[in-house]
Amino acid sequence: MDIEIKVPSLGESENEATLVSWLKSEGDEVLVDDVLAEIESDKITMEITAIEAGVLKSILREADSMVEPGEVIGVLDTSVQVSAKPAAKTVAKNADKTPAKQNKSTAKPVTKKEAQQKAEAVVENVKAQTAIAAESDAMHERSMERVPMSRLRKRIATRLKEAQNTAAMLTTFNEVNMQYVMDMRAQHKDAFMDKYAVKLGFMSFFVKACVYAASKYPAINAYIDGEDVVYHNYMDVGVAVATEKGLVVPVLKDAGLMSFAEIEQGIVSLATKAREGGLMPDDLKGGTFSITNGGVFGSMLSTPILNTPQSAILGMHTIQKRVMVENDQMVIRPMMYLALSYDHRLIDGKEAVGFLVAIKEALEGFGGTLLDV
């Protein structure tokens, strides 16, 4: 029986991808879940796996071809019975187990031919060392290399420029005293880990704070569609994740209904899939608001760019101890700058500032009962 190998559904609004490579050749035996090919869309890289065992009968589209969702790129013949994957070869137990002992009295004298071979070996070794030294010197020479941009990088560039050209983008700033959150984490991290098998991170606090603040300022969670404004009674939060191929923003669906543990588990799952290339199109669809954390790389302050069509994005930054004034006394506190970039066509400055103040209030006053530990 022949089974068609098809291109899976891609991300939202994506209608083409690149067939990056085939990992099997025509005639190769294939087991269930074996990776057959890799495709790369504007947003993610995906693996196409075998749903049944058989033999790869034919390849209909070559590597580097542009393909569309649902397109047949190959055929798998499942009528052929395939063998299990061969086990790794083992080394014979007694092979070269102990080196042979040489009797000094019976050692053979070195012949002229053997002496010549040793001399030639020394010469080859010198040549190899010279080549390595020359290569090392070449590494210090000035050079240039032109490398084509990946589809993901080109798509990122296009979307960022579109955001700048479309939205009336503005950024406002505030700062938050992270002492309360840090104390909360220190107090409950062990119990949280024991109960939910996941670390209690900063991101869950920020997601919760954003959900709370958006309930007070709903325009933050809305977007412009033509001459209309679309409001949401839910909040799907995109969490920016840096990968080797570029920045992707998987979406935490219904974040407003999640507990701290569900948020942390969801973020870990999405981040792992993003870095391992396992994101699926549904992981990237939607998103009504985004959070990006440049603090993990040491960023002290930045102006994040909108993830269109969303109208706002929150930037987190590194935590630094600074001297603050509390009750007319100078004290040292762990402070973080927050940056909110927003579309000024929809969101006024008063709403943007109010949103950040609400986040600050939430982060500086969370109660332990919210953690459910």
Walk me through the structure.
Strands 9, 12, 15, 16, 17, 18 and 19 form a seven-stranded mixed sheet that branches. Strands 1-8-6-3 form a four-stranded antiparallel sheet, with no helix packed on it. The chain starts with a strand and ends in a 10-residue tail after the last helix. The chain is globular, with a radius of gyration of 30 Å. It is 30% helix and 26% strand. It has two domains: 2-77, OB fold (Dihydrolipoamide Acetyltransferase, E2P) (Beta Barrel), CATH 2.40.50.100; 151-371, Chloramphenicol acetyltransferase-like domain (Chloramphenicol Acetyltransferase), CATH 3.30.559.10. Mean pLDDT is 84; it is low at 86-108. It has seven helices and 19 strands. The protein has 373 residues and is an alpha+beta fold.
Estimate the strand proportion: 25-35%
Quaternary state reads single chain
How many domains comprise the coordinates? Answer: 2
CATH topology of the largest domain: Chloramphenicol Acetyltransferase
Which CATH architecture of the largest domain is right?
2-Layer Sandwich
In the CATH scheme, the class of the largest domain would be Alpha Beta
Number of helices: 7
Radius of gyration: 30 Å
What is the count of β-strands?
19
Shape: globular
pLDDT < 50 runs, ≥5 residues? 86-108
**What's the average pLDDT?**
84
- Fourth-level CATH superfamily of the largest domain: Chloramphenicol acetyltransferase-like domain
Terminal Cα span: 54 Å
